[in-house]
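Could you join me in thinking about how sequence relates to backbone shape in a protein? We need material for that, and I hope you will provide a protein of your own picking. Once you have written the record down, we can walk along the chain together:

…
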Amino acid sequence: MNALAKATAPHTAVLDPAHIGHINGAFGTILQGDHGPRESWRHRLQTLLAILGPGLIVMVGDNDAGAFGTYTQAGQNYGTALLWTLLLLVPVLYVNQEMVLRLGAVTGVGHARLILERFGKFWGAFSVIDLFLLNGLTIVTEFIGIALALDYLGLSKELGVAFSAVLIMAAASTGDFRRFERFSIALVFGSLLLVPIFLMIHPPIVQIARDLVTPRLPQGAKLSEVMLLIIAIVGQRSPLGSSSSNRAMSSTSASLRGSSATKRLICGSASCW
């Protein structure tokens, strides 16, 4: 009976104490117990700004050195012929990111704890170890990208990589999520430098629009090489390639559980279901 009771007992996740209290975002604060409706556009905008940071960081987080290397190779070899692969991933990414955000907002706990409670210790440990390895390999690619960029600019790779490592460790060691979020948001806005670069090359807008909505393979290209590159592009933007971002979104949205106002923004109602 005891074994049967344990097997049929519902799994429950406990609200993480770190997610209880005021919501201190990079652009604003929502006080604990603030359940009042946001009736004006001004109040809705203030609430949205308070919770917008994690979404922006996750959105830009996968535009890292590995992604830029893959996209650059695709453009160098085949121009804009493979742009359609990105458009196909939009609905997949939307559903995936919204799902993990709802999980965090409703349960009030992070992604790893939900896996632990629902599937047991093995898969919980597997999830954490997988995250550790994935992030470790990602950090390696980031520093490779930093070294290549500094070498291109004629600057010291050793000093640049060391300075970048110190800056990242300092930002992550502040002990305050708001300060780290603001640091990350500064990097997010730094990615907007791609916009003037994009305009400087005078891109063929008509061709870009056509290749974005017209699936086709580059003419005269080896099928095996094209397929490997498509797999690399999908891997950069797919839910599997974004697993660390999903966990970050789920964990940060867990802090929204105490506010009905933020649930209405995310889910359309205070219940989220």
DSSP finds 13 helices and two strands in the chain. The longest helix spans residues 121-153.
